[in-house]
Amino acid sequence: MERADGSSEPTRGRDLVAPVRDLARRPLLAVLASCQSAGQGYGDVLAGLGPQLARAGIPAVLAMQGNVPMQTVEQLMPVFFRHLQRDGQVDRALAAARGAVQHDPSWWMPVLFLRVRDGRLWREEPPPSPPPAPAPPEPDARQILLAYLERLRIELAETDVVPVPNAYAAADTRAYVPLQARSPRNAAPEPVFAALSTALAAQQPAGLLLIGDAGSGKFHTLRYAALLLAQAWPGVAPELQADLGLVIDKPLLPVYVQLQDLPRCRAELRQAKRRAAPILLHQIDHHLRRLAGDADRWPAKLIRALVTQHVCLFLFDGLDEIDDHRERQDFQTPCSSSSASIQNTCM
Known about the structure:
This protein is an alpha/beta fold. The protein has two domains: 13-114, no CATH class; 141-346, 3-Layer(aba) Sandwich (Rossmann fold). Helix content is 37%, strand content 11%. It has twelve helices and eight strands. It has helices at 13-21, 49-55, 70-87, 90-100, 141-157, 194-201, 218-232, 238-244, 262-273, 280-291, 302-307, 325-332; strands at residues 29-31, 60-64, 110-114, 180-183, 186-191, 253-258, 312-317, 345-346. Helix 5 packs across helix 7. The longest helix is centred in the first third of the chain and has 18 residues, at 70-87. The radius of gyration is 42 Å and the shape is rod-shaped. The protein starts with 12 loop residues before the first helix and ends with a strand. Residues 334-347 have low confidence and may be disordered.
């Protein structure tokens, strides 16, 4: 051992082991690069200083059997510590170090005494998980409404929504010609939404079923009306009053629904929530959320939130694509919300 003045003092191994045994926290590893630190050979290996330190409670002790050449130690130790620093696996580190001196006749002299079962002196603690990001604030009712209208405008604008000439009004060009229809009370053609204006003015739920030959303008008229209502919200577009006959002084929120998508929505709702027969409002809500780009931030009951605060004009497209007769009747029945004070209109 080293004296205070720097000179050396021969010390018995047991005099070194005793204070190590009394330590409250012993070192994880002891490396004895000196000769015979693991004894002189197989006969007295357990009498060396290395095994005594292991018995004193040090988890891993690397010692040398016999008289190890210093050249071997110089080649062995850098490899041993480099591999040990990777993951604390001390037995694997010694195996890699022995491989580096495998052609040296003294490669066998390093010996490892272990008290740990798996040979790992430490384990890397996983980095602490970052704190969860704060949940985005729930959008208020106005934000929901504006986001919905913007999505509807984009969806409709991506499709040609200029109605073609229809059977009741001829034109020389492909300019917009409003769809007109004949009703039982009026033999002359009238704007297609005129029948709704009277019912809405009287604050009565109303429904209007558009039927006609292919090319008569049903599809384009619905999309055209939905787009103008979305663009002019909360007013009613003058084009609707002039061309379609929808004369009303209250805001109408358009809810444009592609009926051909509802069977898929119904199947997905049944699978996700095990509902035997999800109601129509739930199907429409799922349909609108699927079309929205940021549906995850929208309330689970978007359409219900809208219809309880606004008078909605439901525009159902593709009724002729519904094969089930009972479902057709459901769509043809005027829609009303759960609140008696809210009237909604179906097309």
